[in-house]
Write a structure and sequence with these properties.
- By secondary structure, the chain is of the alpha/beta class.
- It folds into two domains: 193 residues, Rossmann fold, CATH 3.40.50; 174 residues, Glycogen Phosphorylase B (Rossmann fold, 3-Layer(aba) Sandwich).
- Helices cover 42% and strands 15% of the residues.
- Strands 3-2-1-4-5-6-7 form a seven-stranded parallel beta sheet, with helices on both faces. A six-stranded parallel beta sheet has the order 10-9-8-11-12-13, with helices on both faces.
- Helix 1 packs across helix 14, helix 7 packs parallel to helix 8 and helix 7 packs across helix 12.
- The radius of gyration is 21 Å and the shape is globular.
């Protein structure tokens, strides 16, 4: 029997670690996998392992770097790239979109029924319960797919209840740990800006955006003694207010305000004693799954899929936006190595239970079910 031909699609390379971890796992399971994407302009990505990569999208804009000129070129390239993808995907047995760049437009550009299953993964948080127009737009977009993969039961419940997607079109498959980071061929040491820390290190890393609650973290850290806080990542917001809040803290706060590439992440995580994600809203986060891969004790806001991880014992949960509760958790864990070790052990257990080979098996089972549904009872 020929191998199942699977095309994974992430036009803007929004989630290269996830895309490439899933592609490698599907390939290990026997599928013939191609990843249709664009060049990631911010740093290295995992090398293909058993699958093919075609940088089909945004070829000219990728050469322009990461500035505004790139965005203008990208807009011009978007429509032709999506049409080229339609032609390429005609030969697939399954097309699995990880993202589309412009969902409102792309629900038309992905084209009519291709004759094979079309799947999408929900990587992003859904609009609020009262945002009816945005939820209706989500429904119109998601109805173009045969199935929607949600990473959590909470997201699946919202797809059913708030968006109006039929239950039999939703499949819950967890996000996997980003364990490729634990064995990179070339790791970089800590940057000089972060050397010489004494005592427990509390780490926040990832793109710096308002919804991630960095201000809440800094307000909480103003009540934490005997620890150091690192905030590492590319700013997508002004830093003046964050630096003002940092100046009030009794402990040292260090900023690394730039993109943190894959080879730099292991040193950050190995040195950190506690990983903190104080997000105001989220569905899931690659940073969380990097933390699980390294067995890090974590403090998470009780939002989206974070709550499900915390209730499995792999993190301490605090209410979103509650700096006082966050301060209590940080103080307790900074002062209690045994408590951190218990959280770390639970993180390792969760990472092992939600490994990529199990995820690939569940994903291929979904593909085969969708193909059988299309074939009908006669098997034609």
């Amino acid at each position: 029997m020929p191998a199942l031909r699977v095309s994974l699609v992430d036009p803007s390379a929004f989630t290269p670690p996830y895309d490439r971890s899933l592609a490698a796992a599907l390939a290990r399971a026997g599928a013939a996998v191609e990843l249709l994407t664009s060049r990631f302009v911010y740093g290295p990505v995992p090398a293909p392992a058993g699958y093919r990569v075609e940088e089909l999208f945004y070829r000219r804009s990728a050469r322009a770097g990461a500035g505004r000129r790139r965005l203008a070129l990208k807009a011009l390239e978007h429509g032709p790239g999506m049409l080229a993808a339609r032609r390429r995907l005609a030969g697939a047995d399954v097309e699995h979109w990880q993202w589309t760049t412009l969902p409102a437009l792309d629900r038309f550009l992905i084209g009519p029924d291709p004759g094979h299953p079309r799947v999408v993964t929900l990587h992003y948080p859904l609009p609020g319960t009262n945002e009816r127009r945005k939820l209706a737009a989500q429904r119109r977009y998601l109805e173009r797919f045969d199935a929607i993969v949600a990473h959590t039961e909470g997201a699946a419940a919202r797809l059913r209840g708030d968006v109006g997607i039929a239950a039999d079109r939703i499949e819950v498959i967890p996000h996997g740990p980003l364990d490729y980071l634990t064995s990179l061929p070339e790791e970089r040491p800590l940057p000089p800006e972060l050397e010489g820390a004494e005592g427990p290190v509390i780490l926040f890393f990832g793109l710096l955006r308002p919804y991630k609650g960095i201000d809440v973290l800094l307000e909480a850290f103003a009540s934490v003694e005997g620890a150091e806080l690192w905030i590492a990542g590319m700013p997508r917001m002004p830093l003046d207010e964050l630096r003002r809040l940092a100046s009030r803290a009794p402990g040292r706060v260090r900023f690394l305000p730039r993109f943190v590439s894959d080879p730099e992440i292991p040193a950050l995580l190995r040195r950190a004693d506690l990983l903190v994600l104080p997000y105001r809203e989220i569905e899931q986060s690659g940073v969380l799954y990097a933390g699980l891969a390294f067995g890090k004790p974590m403090v998470l806001s009780d939002v989206g899929g974070f709550g499900e991880i915390g209730r499995r014992g792999a993190a301490r949960l605090v209410p979103a936006g509650d700096s006082a509760a966050l301060a209590v958790a940080l103080n307790e864990l900074a002062a209690d190595p045994a408590a951190r070790e218990r959280l770390a052990a639970a993180a390792v257990a969760v990472a092992g239970a939600d490994g990529w080979d199990a995820i690939a098996a569940r994903t291929i089972a979904l593909y085969e079910r969708l193909r059988a549904d299309r074939a009908g009872p006669t098997g034609r």
